[in-house]
Amino acid sequence: MAHLQKNYILFKSPVPESCRTVLASGGFADKGPECILGIDEAGRGPVMGPMVYGAAYWSKADDEEISAMGFDDSKALTADQRASLFDKIKETPSVGWVIRSISAEEISNQMLRKVPVSLNIISYAAAMQMIQTALDDGVNITKVYVDTVGDPAAYQERLTRHFKGAIDFTVAKKADSLYKTVSAASICAKVTRDRLLEGWVFPEGPAGFAGGAAMGSGYPSDEKCVAWLRAHVDPVFGFPNIVRFSWGGAGREILEEKAARVEWDEDEGPPPGMQSIAGFLQPANKKRRRAKYFHQRGLEVVHDF
Q1: Mean pLDDT across the chain, nearest whole number?
Q2: Count of structural domains within the chain
Q3: Proportion of the chain above pLDDT 90, given as a percent
Q4: What is this structure's pTM?
Q5: Domain that holds residue 77
Q6: Most CB contacts within 10 A, which of 53, 210, 226, 283?
Q7: Does residue 147 have a known ligand-binding role?
């Protein structure tokens, strides 16, 4: 299911029955079974396509059984193995998942703002959004494992503070190979990103755009990717919106080489005798002229007695 929440798109599964909050006696909501959740991403480094964050969760009581399903770091699996395991995740009623896709356009808009938002901050926000989505759905998340972005200790402290200490966090390098919930999350993220790229529909129009395998891996070190960027740069509008304009490297070099250079005229100020708009907004430095009555009597403003 795809859900538009607060201007971003989340894909999420129904909440597993084994993770649902139940009603206690008297009709009051009681906390459901304790659940663990793992988080990982795919597509952090490419110049093309979305960065996709995945979360997978299940009850602590089911951990041993679900962990035996064969989840592993998505990078250690073949494409067919990942696809098969993703289907198994979706078909297993005791496994829940949340996916947050962050488009190239969203990444560029954030990172090219007047006050830039770093990719790490974008990543932190995505992780928090997925955890909050599970909590809002009534899942009693008590333990979360996260594959780190930046310093693990600082990231862990940030998450703990954001959720006011209610959740026990473990943030670690290579968490996708250490914790099965993170392994499952990495599979969700990687397969989703691959399928988004394979089925990409260019809003700029289909004419002249070669998608799918022609784009290569999307990484700026990939010769096929660089060749695609060279073939699809517009001298006025730059790249299609599948490309991250905020990336340096090959993409930036191609823009500087093949796109039209824009030179902005310097602001020469308002015509003579006309005050600028900024002048209305800035406090005047001139001392305000006091009434004649005060001058005649030698009266001054006194601050200290």
Answers
A1: 86
A2: 2
A3: 54
A4: 0.81
A5: 10-199
A6: 53
A7: yes
